[in-house]
Structure formats: C-alpha cells, structure tokens
Automatic annotation (TrEMBL):
Reactions the enzyme catalyzes: RNA(n+1) + phosphate = RNA(n) + a ribonucleoside 5'-diphosphate
InterPro entries given in the database record: ExoRNase_PH_dom1 (IPR001247), ExoRNase_PH_dom2 (IPR015847), ExoRNase_PH_dom2_sf (IPR036345), KH_dom (IPR004087), KH_dom_type_1 (IPR004088), KH_dom_type_1_sf (IPR036612), NA-bd_OB-fold (IPR012340), PNPase (IPR012162)
Protein's recorded name: Polyribonucleotide nucleotidyltransferase
Entry's Gene Ontology BP terms: mRNA catabolic process; RNA processing
Protein source organism: Mucilaginibacter straminoryzae
Documented EC number(s): 2.7.7.8
Amino acid sequence: MSYNAIKQSFDLGDGRIVEIETGKLAKQADGSVVVKMGDTMLLATVVSAPEAKEGVDFLPLSVDYQEKYASTGRIPGGFLRREARLSDYEILISRLVDRALRPLFPEDYHADTQVMISLISADKNIMPDALAGLAASAALAVSDIPFNGPISEVRVAKIDGKLVINPLLSDLERATLEFIVAGSEHDINMVEGECKEIQEEEMLEALKFAHDAIKVQVAAQKELAAKVEKAKTKRVYNHEHSNEDLKQRVYAETYDKVYEIAKSASAKHDRSAKFKEIQEVLIAGLGEDVDDITKFLAKKYFHDVQYDAVRNLVLDEGKRLDGRQTTQIRPIWSEISYLPSAHGSAVFTRGETQSLTTVTLGAKDDEQMIDGAFINGYQKFILHYNFPGFSTGEVRPNRGPGRREVGHGNLAMRSLKQVLPAEDENPYTIRVVSDILESNGSSSMATVCAGTLALMDAGVKIKAPVSGIAMGLISDEKTGKYAILSDILGDEDHLGDMDFKVTGTENGIVACQMDLKINGLSYEVLAKALDQAKAGRLHILNEMKKTITEPREDYKPFAPRIVAIKIDKEYIGAVIGPGGKIIQEMQRETGATINIEEKDNQGIVQIFADNKAAIDAAVARIRAIAAKPEIGEIYEGKVKSIMPFGAFVEILPGKDGLLHISEIDHRRIEKMDGIFEVGEMVKVKLIDVDKQGKLKLSRKVLLPKPPKPEGQKPAGEAAPEQQA
C-alpha cells in the first residue's frame, strides 16, 4: 500500500533544494511533516489537546528535538545503549524552536500542545538544527491547530567575507559570525548566536539577509498548507472565561494603587509584598461565597492591571520600577580571589543580581566527552550555570539543571569562548561554574561578567574582557510610543516586549540572544537598541576594570602546571610502551599525569602536575625516550649484556649500541671476562650509525692516550744508526 504524499520544495538560493512532505508518516498526529535536505531528514509532529484544562491561563507548550543515533549509523554509548534523556545540545535546539513558536500562538489558546522533532537521517555536512524550526512550523501549518504563523529558522554565517544561509558544517569553522534567526514573513522574533567582535551594523546586515531567506521558506509552507484539506479550517476553541463587569471593577479598585507602588521605586521583595497585599484585599472584597472561577478571573485581571500600570509608567513618565532612567545601569561591585582555594574566583553584583563564579584548570583527561548522534568529540572549555531557588527567595527542590540553566549557560559559554587563548597557547581544560546567589534580571549576563573576572584572576590569558547587558522594550502599537530599557529587571522582562542580551568586548559584539513577544519590531528600533546596549556594555566593562584590568601574570601557586612538548611521531609507541606499561610507570614514579596524542604528524605530550619537580622528572624521561642518538654525543649508558666480542650498552631508553672489545680501551683486550658487569654504568661516545641503524660506541676515545715507552720513535722514523 502506498500513500499519495503532498510535497513542496524551495531553493535556498544557491541551488540546494529543501523539500517538505506531508501525508506519508505519522498520520494520526494533528500535523506531521518530513523536511529533507540532501540526506538529512527531520520528522516533525504536533498534537494539541481538544480542550484546555480548567484554571490554565497560559499555553502549556512542550517542544522536544531528539536525534536518533541510527540516523548517523551509530549506536548510543552508555550501559543501556539507547536514546535516553535529551542531551544539552538537543535541549538547546528544542529551546530555539520553542522560543520561535511560542509568541505566535493566540494569547487565549491554552490547550496542552506538544511539538516533537526527530532527526531520522543525517548528512554529516548538513546541520539539522537550522531545519528544526522550519519542520515544526510546517507541521503546525498542515494541522488544524490555531497558529499565527508560519515561521521559519535559518542559520546565517559570514564565511570568507560573504553571508551564507545554512552553511555546510565543514565551512562553519571559518565563520566570523554565526546566528540562528527565526521569524515570520513580517518580523524577526528570535536570534541567538556568536561572532568575532563585530560591529552593530554588521549584525543588522546579517539579520536582514536571514529574514529574506525566512520569507521564502514561509511562502513554501503556505503553498504546502493550501494543498492540505485539514489545514484549511482551523479548530474552534474557547479557553478563557470572561467577566467584563469584574474586569472593570478590578481596574477601578486597584489600578491607581498599583501605579503608585510601581512609581515608588521600591525594592523587589517590598514591591511584591505590596502588590500581593492589594490582591488579597481585592479577593477578600469579592465575598466568602464567590466561586473559584471568579477568583481565578480576578487574579488574572489583577495581573493585567500590573502589566498596564508598569508599562504606562515607563511610556508616560519615563520611570522604571526601581526608579532608574531607561538608559541607567544598576550599581555594580565586584571582587576577585574571594575563594582562596579556587584556581580563580570572582563575585559580580549588579543591583539585586549576583554571581559567584569559579574557574578550575584541569588536564586533558578532564575534557568533556560529547556523545551525540550528530555532534561527537571532546571540548576543553566547559561552563555550567546554576540557579538555585534561594536566589529569588523561593523554596524549590534541587533537581539538577533545567532547560533554562542549560540555555543561559550556553550563552555565557559562547561569549567567553571567543576570547580564550588559542589552543596551542592554552594547554588546560577550563571549567567555569557560575552559581547565581541573587537574581532580579539578567543573571546570564552577570555570569559573563563574573566569568571574565574569574578567568583573569586564574591567570588565563584571555584576549580581552567581556561584559554583557540585557535590554528590554516597552511599546504601544496604538500610539507608536516605545521605550528601550537598559539592564532590565525580572519584572521588566516578564511584563515587557523584548529580552535582548548582547555581550562583547571594547572592540565589538561576541554573542547575542533575542526574544520578541510582539510583532512589528522595526530595524530602526533594533538599531537603537544595539547602540544603547553598546553604551551599557562599555559602562559595565569600565566598572569591572576597577577590580582587575588584565589577566594575572602567572597562575595561582597551588594551580596545577602543564608542560606540552612535541616528539617525533615514531616515538609515540615508545613513550606509551607495550600495553601502556612505560607511560603508566612514569606516572606512578613521577606523580605527574601524562597524555599523548598524534596531531599534525607529531606527537603532542602534555605533562600535568601540581609541582615542578614532578613535571621536570617526567619531561626528562620522555625526552630521553624520544631523543635521537647523535653521532659525536657522549652518553652515560647501562651495560645490558656482555658478549665475547664486546658489550651492548643502552645509551637512551630502548636504544642499545655495541661497544666493541676493540673500543673499550687503548690497550689490547683479549677477553671480556671481568671487564664489565651487567647493569654497570659506563660513559661512551656514539661514533657511527650504520645503514641498518645499528649504533657503534667507543669508550677508549674518552680515555687519555697512554704515554709512549721511552726511546720509541713515531712510526716511519728511522733510528740514528740507520740514518748513518
């Protein structure tokens, strides 16, 4: 039996074709598509519950992106040998899609909705993450689920000075900027990526280029949906109760009070307590016999009051919840070496947001192994971000990092990665850990700042300090008024229209993350936000420089040391030894950790220890093993065996030479009996290496010549009587 699949395709603009197919796989889902580019195939499905649950006033949307190991012909690692919980990489892709889709659902749609994207076939050179948003949106487009799309996502990169859409993986390492951009045919609503100290104008150029590509992909989805009968009629729903009289009462009783509290420039917890008190009085005033739906609506309308009051305060009076002007940054203080035993540490505090960040320097064995279906290998720079409940005064069980922690940590990692020293200048595996101790807005940017300070405190020779800032937007579509807010609070993020995080050095932007909750952000407003962010970044950077201006000259005394030496490839096996015997013996006897790998046709040996003596001992032994015997060099060798014709002497580990009986002494030696003992040390000189590589040694050339017997003439000179 075969199905008549419906297909739609488009050109990326360079001859590469992307195909979208529906009606063949996963037909019981509300919507399903397969997106194909080359040999890469993504299956995206979407299912939404027929009705919303009682008392839900938000969209319960879940987005999961998962890579099937079979797609790349691999079997998963670990004990179970099957796909398990999502990896950090899969979580990051899930977040990219979620952030692009969520703002486009109707505000009053509250049914449980699940989007699943699976990588089912992979081309090693085509990155599937840039197609995940397209696949998810196309699945929604061919369904009957209400959605104000379509949208799409693309990767835009500048490679060899030219902007490219969805570049090949092999070309991406040459990119000077790389962003994932999402949007509809009218607007951009999500950006995330990294770059190498670019200017604001260059970033805007890349976003416009990406948006042009998105418009083509959105048009293709509309054409596909027009061919699908189910997609022509969207489902009818009613997920919100309403009570207009109650709404007017809530506004009349609370708006002025909320506005005054918002205007009072109070601290976060004081402000929250006052808002809560107003709400409690409101609910109590409804009477004891009021039903749960009315209470629910009253709380919802009170939230709407807060939303309107805070936004109007900003737009009408230019004032913010904490009393700042729109461009003003909260007070900053920082400190380094706060933790005496850490290799590097820093405390960075901006307003009511605080990060305690540590840096740990490790060896090659500490590298993080990445075992994904598409991405696998090792990475030597690790950044972890922790957000415990106490940072916001909440009681919350510690269940490990959630998606938010993974996403925030990734943004900070992208930022700091750009300024790390080159790999040949930095032998360490570096782990940065940011523990958020207080939070009221932009803890990820505090992580970037604290991470920079901690790296410099650890003596890591970063290229330049990095700072970060979170920008917000309050806008009114009816009046056209808008205000761009620097260094936003948590409430301003929640009640605002934009969260735009920008990180950079004095020379330019190194990473960004933007989420929009509205339609219609013009490039003019975006350019203004970028300029305002630059001023804020530089202000924060100057405050950081009051604590430390450049990396320490040396690592902390107790920090481990790493020495890297190069040896000829042919000696790698000799250093390791049979079954690892030699390298294990060296580690046991010296106390150093030794790693060796082949790179660029050479052996790279890293010796890691917490004291110089251990490193020196290991280096000496490795150099001895890997040294090439040089003719004319003098060696202190060990007698390994004695033969009738001479002795074999080990001048370097694993390198024996023949000390012939005629080269032992100037005097004639008839037999080897009693001349040497096995294990005896003897000083010899390498006098020749034959064509087979055999070493010829001499001891007698190092001994003084014996005096000639008295009256003996040089050879060839006749005696006096013979001359007569």
